[in-house]
């Protein structure tokens, strides 16, 4: 995949479409400005994925799932048309290229984040804390209102709405997953600081095939928790009925599976992170706020 610019052009097109909503661009610009002065966050994330490198079971299962989806080209044709429309604007590519170039110069953050994940991987406390967090969020409609506004903005591109409606209809058969995800997003959406960080993170990682390897390692580690596997199995079973989306992603994952270089680097990052309690304190405070309400709700 690294030798091909087709994906970058498609992705550029998608972002170019979004340029009509200046609100998102302003958030993203702020995030990039913040990240340019501090590269510590990238190191934290590298470590998190590195811990997960010990298991390839998830990759094998996911590859099989993608292989099943490969029989349909309908989604590819629709997506190609969408990207072709977007290809006329290079403004986003230039801004994104500058951002990635700035982040690439420092690995300090990646190492710190690796340590954090190494600490968390040996304990089920995080799983319990996350369950409580989701239970608390399930009672809040604030996120739904904000998301409705976002969809209303997108309504000018009816093609996108139709594609997204089909995807949501498929997911609706697994109500447990939808409720859990809605709660998680609801909490995050209320903190604009997190949204800026996440926007920057996704933009940075999307430009590098190495990130996919890191993510594969992270998922592989989670496979040891049967609760997560059950949730994920339900999600895959739901997606199996919609063969349109995954053909392109199948080739992408197949390419990444051949290299473990990133996974090894990420392992080192997790080991380093354990010495920094600053992030843990920040995260504990955030979860503590949600956990107080969770105590009055049934377990999800």
UniProtKB/TrEMBL annotation:
It comes from the Eukaryota. This is Uncharacterized protein. It comes from Ophiocordyceps sinensis (strain Co18 / CGMCC 3.14243) (Yarsagumba caterpillar fungus).
